[in-house]
TrEMBL record:
Organism whose genome encodes this protein: Catagonus wagneri
Keyword check for Membrane: yes
One example of a Gene Ontology biological process annotation: protein transport
Name of the featured protein: CKLF like MARVEL transmembrane domain containing 6
Ranges for domain MARVEL: 33-160
Subcellular location: Membrane
Keywords: Membrane, Transmembrane, Transmembrane helix
Membrane disposition: Multi-pass membrane protein
Pfam families: MARVEL
Annotated Gene Ontology cellular component terms: early endosome membrane; plasma membrane; recycling endosome membrane
Segments passing through the bilayer: 77-95, 107-126, 138-157
Length: 183
């Protein structure tokens, strides 16, 4: 019996991509697209908006509930949007969509969420009932809105730092005109 017949059914020459130390879901998750402060700010946005939402959900009663409900909507939306952006950056979805569109979407989502979260936190400040959970929710709301706005200003700074492509200058014709102008 030759060795090829013994080992051929149990060994593979080239194992698939889902084998080894980074198998299954972890092989699709990467953090290399987010660098330095952006990675830290994205995680901060996610955690702070989740903590603001959790603290707001603990509130058992309210006098003026409009601010509480608006804050609840904004904090939940901010958490879900920041989770969505992190998923797009860290999975193969980023490769399937144009990177310029992902960055543009991140830019507008971060700006809008930061501004609306700040407004919701301010409204909640004026309508809360001074319970501990409301005060923690307001604090986490302000921290989350600051993280969103700081990330937005970093994106603006990086966008301004990039060189802009120049338009080609208008060139004049060097060959002589052979046809009369009023022909």
């Amino acid at each position: 019996m030759e060795n090829g017949a013994v080992y051929s059914s149990t060994t593979e020459a080239h194992p698939g991509p889902a084998r080894g130390a980074r198998g299954r879901l972890t092989s699709y998750f990467t953090l290399k697209r987010l660098r330095g402060p952006s990675r830290f700010l994205k995680y901060t946005q996610l955690v702070m908006s989740l903590l603001a939402f959790i603290c707001e959900e603990i509130v058992s009663q309210c006098t003026l509930c409009g601010g509480l409900y608006f804050f609840e909507f904004v904090s939940c939306s901010a958490f879900l949007l920041s989770l969505l952006i992190l998923i797009v950056y860290c999975t193969p979805v980023y490769d399937k969509v144009e990177p310029a569109k992902v960055k543009s979407s991140d830019f507008y989502i971060t700006a809008g969420t930061g501004f609306v979260f700040l407004v919701a936190s301010l409204i909640f400040v004026f309508t809360h009932d001074n319970t501990v959970s409301e005060l923690f929710a307001i604090g986490f709301g302000f921290l989350a809105s600051l993280a969103f706005l700081f990330d937005f200003f970093i994106m603006v700074y990086e966008k301004c730092k990039q060189p802009r492509p120049r338009k080609p200058e208008a060139t004049t014709r060097t060959e002589p005109l052979t046809e009369p102008l009023n022909a």
